[in-house]
Write a structure and sequence with these properties.
399 residues, alpha+beta, 10-stranded mixed sheet, 7 helices, globular
Length: 399
């Protein structure tokens, strides 16, 4: 079952130029925390190439099935167009990034260490500070007299969500800075996602805690994908212990015998097998207390935990229809190798031909820590079997 589409060709201020009801083909991609893109090819007879200019807009509206309401998908800022004639037929191709490119057009145009460049606080609030100080009107630039603000661009109020982050982004690209903050939040297991969404003829910067879309993995009838159901393709399961360090020595101030050393360990990984112990260090000489040294070592211990990763392509079927039952940014459940994985639909690429037939390529990704905690008795039992040792022999070795 194919979706229903409407393409709108607009001036930069959102005023309409033409509604495109026919096309040769088009495609668009939506990426979590990324720009995405739109690429449209239409016969020149349906669109005068002279009407096209840089930053004119192409908006994609979609309904998941006939009779359903059209909803905005993405807005393209045209930055490249091609006119070509083949077999006496002339075509116009327009392409460009999605609306998140508005953030990619700005830098954090302040010197490093200034209050506008160097920030610390909850990830949600820090993101919004950077955007507020570099995108909406009015902005008084400290180096040039030109106005940097984008008209009709608003920022949702602070919601004080996510982990505490610290960053100095002076003269860095704004979109890249926001992505770095999002990565730091994800690494702290408190994800914060962000997006620019259409508000009438304007834009609004929003953040989302834990999930970009809707959690479809819970409830009495959670949405499920599997090979048996015929809505899962190309699954990939990976377990990665290559970066594992399960005892990390925090190296504090001092030298020689007087150096402060604090080891932080993960007993679950230490006891896993005969050769499980993997040692590492964390330089913490700049810290002033033992607790700070221990915290730095513990942070690296967490970063070095082994991972389980799962990814797969999701298929839109009559029973699990894209746009009706699940959507880009949603959390969904997949079953593979007898295991259940819950992850987010990170990106979607949709291609539509001149006959309206669509191809949906959606990718879900899930990541877990591989060092699943089991009972201490079970772990000690594993170790005892490996070493053919008694319990007293094990405990001194493990600490």
């Amino acid at each position: 079952m194919a979706g229903v589409y409407e393409l709108r060709f607009l001036y930069p201020d959102g005023s309409p130029i033409k509604q495109l009801s026919q096309w040769s083909q088009f495609s668009y991609a939506k990426v979590v925390n990324g720009e995405g893109f739109v690429d449209v090819v239409v016969p020149a007879g349906l669109l005068d190439p002279n009407l096209i200019d840089v930053d004119h807009l192409v908006e994609v509206w979609r309904a998941p099935e006939p009779g359903a309401e059209l909803e905005w998908e993405i807005t393209c800022f045209i930055n490249r167009w091609i006119v070509t004639t083949q077999n006496n037929e002339t075509y116009v191709q327009m392409t460009g990034p999605g609306q998140m490119n508005l953030l990619g057009r700005r830098i954090v145009r302040y010197n490093r260490t200034t209050a506008e460049a160097a920030k610390e606080g909850l990830a949600d609030d820090v993101m919004k500070e950077y955007v507020t100080e570099n995108v909406p009107e009015p902005i008084t630039d400290p180096y040039y007299s030109d106005e940097r603000g984008i008209p009709n661009f608003t920022v949702v109020a602070d919601e004080s969500r996510g982990p505490n982050v610290g960053i100095d982004a002076g003269w860095e690209n704004l979109l890249y800075t926001l992505q770095k903050i999002a990565e730091a939040a994800h690494a702290n297991e408190s994800p914060i996602y962000f997006d620019v969404v259409r508000q009438g003829k304007g834009w609004e910067f929003r953040t989302y805690a834990d999930l970009r879309g809707t959690d479809r993995s819970i409830g009495s009838s959670p949405l499920q994908f599997s090979l048996d159901w015929g809505n899962l393709e190309s699954p990939v399961y990976e377990q990665d212990w290559s970066e594992d360090e399960n005892i990390v020595h925090g190296l504090g101030w001092g030298t020689g015998e007087g150096r402060v050393v604090d080891p932080e360990r993960d007993k679950w990984r230490l006891f896993r097998n005969l050769y499980a112990r993997r040692e590492g260090i964390q330089d913490a000489r700049g810290e002033s207390t033992l607790l700070q040294v221990a915290t730095r070592a513990a942070e690296k211990l967490g970063r070095k935990r082994p991972r389980i990763r799962f990814s797969a392509s999701l298929m839109s079927t009559p029973e699990t229809l894209y746009g009706r039952d699940w959507y880009w940014g949603d959390k969904v459940r997949a079953v593979y190798l007898g295991q259940t994985f819950v992850g987010m639909v990170e990106e979607v690429l949709i291609q539509v031909g001149d006959d309206g037939k669509e191809t949906i390529n959606a990718r879900m990704e899930a990541e877990y820590f591989a060092d699943i905690e089991v009972g201490l008795d079970e772990i000690i039992g594993m170790r005892t079997a490996d070493l053919n040792a008694t319990l007293p022999d094990i405990l001194p070795y493990s600490i």
